Amino acid sequence: MTQTTKGIKPNCLNLRYDEVMANSKHLTILYGENQPASRQRLVELIEQSKNSGYQVHHLEAKQLTQAELEQVLGRNSLFDAQQVVVIESLHSLPNSKNKNQLIKLVAGEANSGQTHLILWEKRDLTATMLKQFPTAQVEFFKLSKAMFRWLDQVGQPAKTVIPLMHQAIDQDGAELTFLMLVRQIRLLIETKSGDQPAGPPFMVSKLKQQANYFTLDELFNLHLKLLTIDHQQKTSGSNLSLPQALDLLWVLK
Q1: First-to-last C-alpha distance (Å) of the chain
Q2: Where a domain ends, among 83, 115, 141?
């Protein structure tokens, strides 16, 4: 297994398309919490596949069965064109017989099949997960340390939070910074409500400590404000840029 690590601007480090497609085992895995960067890379690979004459089949794992995947992998086009099969969020499925069968099929095709496969995962994958695909070309899209430093300080005074937020924006972009804040607030709401989010013990412990900086009403109110910002950004309902809207969020908190 070959792995490369990428941040928000992966183009300068990416393997050339012909190198990816020439991979004798035909499997590329894109994963990591930096979803804008990994999504951009996926779009690039799909466009390059089409431009190179490949047929592209784009599948959502949550709607996929073993029989359906077998059919796609065994499909030959009228013109016998090579195909690329993209599967999204396979490792985000709940543990089940179907998930295990799908992973087995992908691993088998990667080792001996003729189809080029791309797995796109919106989450981090463990070493155990990756070991199931020993011949894959793996590209890891990680978050910056600035992002984690900022998320850990959410709940602190604006004079602390805003500079750290801008460091995260500089490193990972405003869109990803916003998405990670929404995720963090949702985790804090879950924690404050008495539920335990999925994750390693150290993460759960940090969330419990951080949740103490808020009341549950404050968290719900903050989440509502984030939804409003999201709607305004998508509908041009505000003259503020996303970084400016986030600045104002903390100033008025």
Answers
A1: 47
A2: 141
Owning domain of residue 68:
2-141
pTM of the model: 0.75
What are 246's two structure tokens? 């986030």
User: Above pLDDT 90, what percent of the chain?
Assistant: 69
Distance CA 164, CA 145 (A): 11
Q: Which of 96, 125, 141 is the last residue of a domain?
A: 141
Q: Using only C-alpha atoms, what is the Rg of the chain? A: 21
- pLDDT tens-digit readout, 188-220: 999 999 888 877 788 889 999 999 999 999 999
Cross-strand partners of 31: 140
Pair of tokens at residue 160: 């602390």
Cβ atoms of 141 and 31 within 8 Å: the answer is yes
